[in-house]
């Protein structure tokens, strides 16, 4: 039976490493942020490589949804989705076709990592509020809560957490297949990879968990505090 797994994350949240983990399986193809181009067109957001991203992908949500449907002979597909690419009111009826996992991370760590790449950060940029909304919306569509994974738990014990996720999703666990990979870029990477993926391209597995809590300036600290309740609401459902 063909299976689609939609992985929902905000930016700077080991989502690309998670994509690498799934692509390391011999039975899985991956799709990198398929709604990015649509989001840029609709929002007018000025992201690095904006025009190249728009040209690289279907420019309507209907065409993206059609492209995501599994091609013949593909038994497992992992889709890396950014929550801020799915604005409020967008059609989510297609989500019933997939299994889902929501990847969360401490707001302070997300903001600190985002600011290493971008000069400013906003609530919309990091997508935590929208992630919680999507968690509720997808739960309503499916009639059950999809699994949640905290990136800190994945980094602390990737094999245990990924095995737990596969079991929860009803997907065969392949020993050793999802925790190590060869360094370098992938043909499946989005065209934005040169700006964002340097760390994961140098990696051969999940990084060691961070110990120190990042220092934030007052405005970023205030944003992290505002986002904490949304993070904790999803964390209540996380796999352990």
Automatic annotation (TrEMBL):
InterPro entries: Class-IV_PLP-Dep_Aminotrnsfr (IPR050571), P-loop_NTPase (IPR027417). Belongs to the class-IV pyridoxal-phosphate-dependent aminotransferase family. This is Sulfotransferase family protein. It comes from Candidatus Paraluminiphilus aquimaris.
């Amino acid at each position: 039976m063909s299976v689609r797994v939609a992985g929902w994350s905000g930016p700077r949240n080991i989502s690309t490493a998670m994509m690498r983990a799934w692509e390391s399986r011999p039975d899985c193809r991956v799709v990198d942020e398929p709604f990015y181009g649509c989001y840029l067109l609709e929002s007018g957001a000025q992201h690095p490589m904006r025009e190249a991203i728009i040209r690289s992908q279907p420019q309507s949500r209907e065409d993206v949804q059609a492209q995501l449907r599994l091609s013949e002979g593909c038994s497992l597909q992992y889709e890396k989705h950014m929550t801020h690419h799915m604005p409020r009111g967008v059609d989510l009826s297609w989500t019933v076709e997939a299994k889902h996992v929501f990847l969360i991370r401490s707001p302070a760590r997300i903001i600190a990592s985002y600011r290493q790449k971008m000069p400013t950060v906003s609530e919309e940029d990091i997508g935590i509020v929208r992630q919680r909304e999507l968690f509720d919306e997808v739960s309503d569509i499916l009639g059950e809560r999809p699994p949640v994974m905290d990136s800190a738990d994945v980094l602390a014990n990737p094999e245990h957490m990924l095995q737990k996720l596969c079991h929860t999703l009803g997907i065969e666990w392949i020993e050793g297949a999802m925790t190590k990979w060869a360094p370098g870029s992938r043909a499946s990477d989005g065209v934005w990879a040169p700006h964002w993926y340097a760390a994961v391209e140098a990696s051969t597995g999940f990084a060691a968990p961070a110990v120190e809590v990042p220092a934030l300036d007052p405005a970023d600290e205030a944003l992290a505090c505002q986002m904490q309740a949304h993070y904790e609401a999803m964390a209540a459902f996380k796999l352990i």
